[in-house]
Design a protein that fits this description.
mainly beta, Immunoglobulin-like, three-stranded antiparallel sheet, 7 strands, 0% helix
Length: 88
């Protein structure tokens, strides 16, 4: 079997909740979503559900207009291009 060398598509429909506690969106099912702050610190992650949706809890919450980057990594270790979203 040939190895999986193709990165997943960037996450879509990425949004931060009004309270800044979670990020939701869509990505490749079974992959891992990672959310980073402007300094590159990981502040949340989640496994994408079978229907392609995810909800990741942020620690700390983001409520001051911060720009967050969101990537997804498939089970073979390939990482997508980054999507960005802005906190409320």
């Amino acid at each position: 079997t040939a190895p999986d060398t193709i990165a997943p598509a960037a996450p879509t429909d990425v949004a931060v909740s009004a309270d800044g506690d979670t990020v939701t969106g869509k990505a490749e099912a079974g992959s891992t979503v990672t959310i980073k702050d402007a300094e590159g610190n990981t502040i949340g992650s989640a496994t994408v559900a079978a229907d392609g949706s995810f909800t990741a809890t942020l620690d700390p919450a983001q409520t001051n207009g911060e720009t967050l980057t969101v990537t997804t990594t498939d089970t073979a270790g390939n990482t997508s291009a980054a999507a960005t979203t802005t906190a409320p």
